[in-house]
TrEMBL record:
Organism in which the protein naturally occurs: Mycolicibacterium frederiksbergense
Family: Belongs to the alanine or glycine:cation symporter (AGCS) (TC 2.A.25) family.
Coiled coil (residue ranges): none
Superkingdom in the source lineage: Bacteria
Presence of the UniProt keyword Transmembrane in the record: yes
Protein's cellular compartments: Cell membrane
Entry annotated with the keyword Oxidoreductase: no
TM helices/strands, residue ranges: 12-30, 67-86, 92-111, 145-166, 186-204, 211-232, 244-267, 302-325, 370-390, 411-434, 440-462
InterPro entries: Na/Ala_symport
Descriptive protein name: Alanine:cation symporter family protein
GO MF: amino acid:sodium symporter activity
GO cellular-component term (any): plasma membrane
Membrane topology classification: Multi-pass membrane protein
Length: 516
């Protein structure tokens, strides 16, 4: 089974996906005239604004929900893995995919807002790739094909976010706690399940409230403490930066043979961490209450910067400046050691231990515990975000059948299906916590890769409405207006949620029902 999964992962994460991610980012950047640079100040302004409603959350809450999915084990164990198998240069390629990916994130998240709908069961906003894949082309002859495309993406997302990806998070969390405090992985699994059950059963509002408190606090604390240690090793910074850039392009003799691995691991772990193009961000974006889709598109583009340029960079700098790294040949920890910083013990495993060792260089004994606590919070919020995405796509798959009455536990098909999903994701958490790291990461990579293939191809086809929304937003801003979205005026078809809104006030005229 392990051999089959590794082979499948190799096909999914071939050079084709790496080049597709980079090429799409370049293309979207050019088409949007580098929106991730031009509108940087606007991203920050919008992040702090926004309204809530009974159906939607604020822009900031949607951002933190998105960051809850992005900020997780990929920011700690993922960066360590990228450096171990791709060398220090992998960090540069993580930056590259983040910068380019911000434009990709803008496109996908704006589409998520344009084609969102209201859940007939809960009244909450729902959206994401499955929704825009099926709705954007509904007026064309290709409608049946894209309806199937949307269904396939929804099914893959339920599988990935409900089964494959949570196991990676729980595995890293359990491993870190076991290493730091000797806590049984089974104990970690049970405690995590109890906490998760409390939050996810409360619905999107409780998820948003939880994420808006935990994610910003932990992210800031983690970055500050990591940078304190980095600056404590300030004399190593010039050499570290030189090493990153030289090894990224094979200019350093020690890493010349693995420059391809640097690109591969940088892109792979970059996408796993910031999720640009993966199709996860649009789910949180669609939940926001905004007057114009481009607003949340810009906010979500900023989330990519927060994840990779801030948090992943802090981790990478910490590892490299303290010498808490070891680079292996052959993309496996069984390969020959190409280089090492000298701070790691002989038995240090690839993953959180790199970061724990880095913190311990200045905070002896406390670093390991801090990383374990950080991972616990990051991983917990990420699993919660995965659940929300899986639930959203389950709702899409069920469509109007979700409201059918059945004489079972929750009384409707949708309610009972959600209960099953909750049980499955909790089971995945337990399974991941007690499995090996290699198995967990392989399953996670398969889930991320499948979603990325489907979503990036989809948004390359459907991108035009996002640019129309961006131009409309910028035009209204120049006129001194608070932009209000009118899809009919822009010739955008299928945005049924927005068609019910008054184009002058942005207020809803007729309650829109889900038409997935």
């Amino acid at each position: 089974m392990t051999e089959f999964l590794n082979t499948l992962n190799g096909y999914i994460w071939s050079n084709g996906l790496v080049y597709l991610c980079l090429a799409a980012g370049v293309y979207f950047s050019i088409r949007s005239r580098f929106v991730q640079v031009r509108q940087f100040k606007e991203m920050i302004r919008l992040m702090l604004k926004g309204e809530k409603s009974p159906s939607g959350v604020s822009s900031f809450q949607a951002l933190t929900m998105s960051l809850a999915g992005r900020v997780g084990t990929g920011n700690i164990a993922g960066v360590a893995t990228a450096i171990a198998f791709g060398g220090p240069g992998a960090l540069f390629w993580m930056w590259a995919v983040a910068f380019l990916g911000a434009s990709t994130s803008f496109v996908e998240c704006t589409l998520g807002q344009i084609y969102k709908t209201r859940d007939t069961l809960t009244g909450e906003y729902r959206g994401g790739p499955a929704y825009y894949l099926s709705r954007a082309m509904a007026h064309t002859k290709a409608a049946p094909l894209f309806k199937v495309y949307g269904l396939v993406f929804a099914a893959v997302t339920v599988l990935a976010c409900g089964v494959l990806l949570p196991s990676v998070q729980s595995n890293s969390m359990a491993s870190a706690m076991n290493q730091s405090w000797g806590v049984s992985k089974w104990v970690v699994a049970v405690c995590t399940v109890i906490l998760l059950a409390f939050v996810i059963i409360g619905g999107v509002k409780r998820i948003a409230a939880f994420a808006s408190i935990v994610v910003p606090f932990m992210a800031v604390v983690y970055i500050v403490l990591a940078m304190i240690i980095v600056f404590a090793n300030a004399d190593a910074l010039p050499g570290m930066l030189k090493l990153i850039f030289e090894s990224a392009f094979g200019l350093d003799a020690g890493f010349g043979a693995i420059v391809g691995a640097a690109v591969m691991w940088g892109v792979k772990r970059g996408i796993y961490s910031n999720e640009a193009g993966q199709g996860t961000g649009p789910h949180a974006a669609a939940a926001a209450e905004v007057s114009h889709p481009a607003k949340q598109g810009l906010v979500q583009a900023f989330a990519v910067y927060v994840d990779t340029l801030f948090i992943c960079s802090a981790t990478g700098f910490l590892i490299l400046s303290t010498g808490a790294y070891r680079v292996y040949e052959g993309e496996s920890d069984t390969g020959a050691v190409l280089a090492e910083g000298g701070a790691l013990g002989a038995d240090a495993e690839v993953g959180p231990s790199f970061v724990q060792t880095g913190f311990d260089t200045l905070w002896q004994g406390g670093g390991s515990s801090f990383v374990a606590v950080s991972l616990a919070f990051f991983c917990l919020t990420t699993i919660i975000a995965y659940y929300y995405m899986a639930e959203t796509n389950l709702r899409f798959l069920l469509g109007k059948a979700a409201t059918i009455k059945v004489p079972v536990i929750r009384g409707t098909v949708g309610g009972d299906a959600t209960l099953v999903l909750q049980a499955v994701i909790l089971g995945s958490v337990v399974s991941g916590a007690v499995s090996t790291a290699t198995e967990a990461w392989t399953l996670g990579d398969i889930g991320v890769g499948l979603m990325a293939w489907l979503n990036i191809i989809g948004i390359l086809i459907l991108q035009q409405p996002a640019y129309k929304a961006l131009r409309d937003y910028e035009r209204q801003k120049k006129e001194g207006l608070d932009p209000i979205f009118d899809p009919t005026a822009l010739g955008i078809v299928g945005a049924t949620f927005w068609e019910t809104r008054d184009p002058l006030t942005g207020k809803e005229r007729v309650p829109e029902t889900s038409r997935s």
